[in-house]
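> call design_seq(struct)
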């Protein structure tokens, strides 16, 4: 979502980061470029004006004139102001009320409310260990209730049935009563949306809010709505005591302006980002990490958290133990590593979160790494268990059988075997204390830790095919 904004800002700020002194004249051009970049990203004009003025005042103030490197200090100011616009820190859900805590979801039709209800139910169930009940009070959209029932089954949340001939307030109060009986911790109420803001919609949702007194009232907004985000946010903020925002479709080609505008306009924090259609594609919104990514500084914390949640720790420990005992790194291990990387969103998603690796992420995307990884997996799947354990068995006829079974070419198979051999060689060096020695050596090269993992980030080492 922030790709274009990131490119423009990085380009604009490059000219000034090397300056020994900052003056009104040499920051004027940079600020003009920053203003244009923000406007092109669909950030609301009042937000752009306030942001640029704040950066200008701080850049010409005492904190820069006394700095050892004013150019880099300017970049830090821009980062600080981006964080301030989006909210200083992640705002968690406040569910510290007598159970069941009610979460009311509001927003226009098509913003992704129903999907967000399921994503949030899954998030609360898995991360917060809550028992969640979901209910649809949308009696206008024919498929809304069935859609939520299907999604509830997928995420393992309790579903309260409703029908189109019931009143929304009756549905919601009955669901809360059921939640008390079944000892649910949280009730998430999906509400009706419209294609535009109208009095009937606002009156209905205000009545619903009064009836259920929610602990959280979340405004769901489509990141691709652009400049209109401001008007929509203002209307809902005036009608309801909002407590936070969920920004959906942040994985699309939206320009990112909504994220920078909504917080400023409503004064309410963005609590979550919807980053895909799958039910697990919901991330807590961290303004500092997003600002860091916009300015091409990476996002190590999110990468670590993602690894903790999505990497199979048992498999990872098994591989480390195998390597340390000096056992052979076989093609089954390589397949597991490819699958772990796919779980993390693929090579491009990982590189984007590493500091200074934005260009490498683009190269990975252009080289169509995702397709190549799937191809490698298909080749390994076409082998027998014995061939996976010992690739030396592969003779001409076996290779022909494998490429026919996987629908690939002989050069694809040979490239995979070469890649595996390089990785196996590296794994051999890590036997015993070799891994610790290698990490210490890298720590020395990187100036005391940090930087990329051994092998350029590809599990097991070595650059992935197509990027050499």
């Amino acid at each position: 979502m922030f790709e274009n904004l990131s490119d423009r800002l990085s380009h604009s700020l490059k000219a000034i980061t090397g300056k020994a002194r900052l003056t009104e004249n040499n920051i004027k051009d940079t600020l003009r470029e920053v203003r244009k970049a923000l406007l092109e990203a669909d950030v609301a004009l009042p937000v752009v004006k306030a942001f640029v003025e704040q950066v200008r005042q701080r850049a010409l103030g005492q904190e820069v004139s006394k700095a050892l490197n004013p150019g880099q200090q300017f970049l830090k100011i821009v980062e600080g102001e981006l964080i301030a616009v989006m909210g200083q820190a992640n705002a968690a859900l406040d569910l510290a009320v007598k159970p069941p805590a009610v979460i009311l979801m509001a927003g226009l039709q098509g913003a992704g409310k129903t999907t967000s209800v399921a994503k949030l139910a899954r998030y609360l169930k898995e991360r917060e260990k809550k028992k969640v009940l979901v209910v649809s009070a949308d009696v206008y959209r024919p498929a809304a209730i069935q859609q939520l029932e299907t999604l509830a089954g997928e995420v393992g949340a309790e579903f309260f049935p409703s029908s189109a001939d019931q009143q929304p307030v009756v549905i919601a109060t009955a669901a809360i009563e059921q939640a008390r009986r079944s000892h649910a911790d949280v009730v998430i109420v999906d509400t009706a949306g419209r294609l535009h803001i109208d009095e009937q919609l606002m009156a209905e949702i205000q009545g619903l809010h009064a009836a259920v007194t929610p602990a959280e009232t979340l405004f769901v907004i489509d990141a691709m709505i652009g400049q209109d985000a401001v008007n929509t946010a203002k209307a809902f903020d005036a009608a309801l005591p909002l407590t936070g925002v969920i920004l959906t479709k942040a994985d699309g080609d939206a320009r990112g302006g909504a994220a920078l505008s909504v917080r400023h306009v409503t004064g309410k924090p963005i609590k979550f980002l919807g980053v895909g259609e799958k039910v697990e594609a919901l991330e807590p919104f961290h303004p500092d990490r997003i600002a860091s990514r916009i300015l091409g500084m990476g996002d190590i914390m999110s990468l670590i958290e993602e690894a903790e949640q999505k990497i199979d720790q048992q498999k990872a420990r098994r591989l480390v133990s195998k390597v340390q005992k000096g056992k052979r790194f076989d093609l089954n291990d390589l397949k597991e590593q490819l699958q772990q990387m796919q779980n993390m969103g693929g090579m491009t998603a990982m590189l984007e979160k590493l500091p200074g690796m934005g260009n490498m992420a683009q190269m990975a995307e252009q080289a169509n790494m995702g397709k190549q990884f799937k191809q490698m997996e298909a080749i390994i799947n076409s082998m027998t268990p014995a061939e996976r354990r010992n690739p030396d068995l592969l003779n001409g006829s076996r290779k022909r059988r494998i490429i026919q079974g996987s629908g690939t070419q002989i050069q694809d198979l040979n490239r995979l075997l070469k890649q595996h051999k390089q990785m196996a060689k590296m794994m051999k060096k890590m036997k015993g204390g070799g891994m610790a020695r290698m990490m210490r050596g890298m720590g020395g090269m990187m100036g005391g830790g940090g930087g990329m993992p051994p092998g350029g980030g590809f599990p097991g080492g070595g650059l992935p095919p197509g990027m050499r």
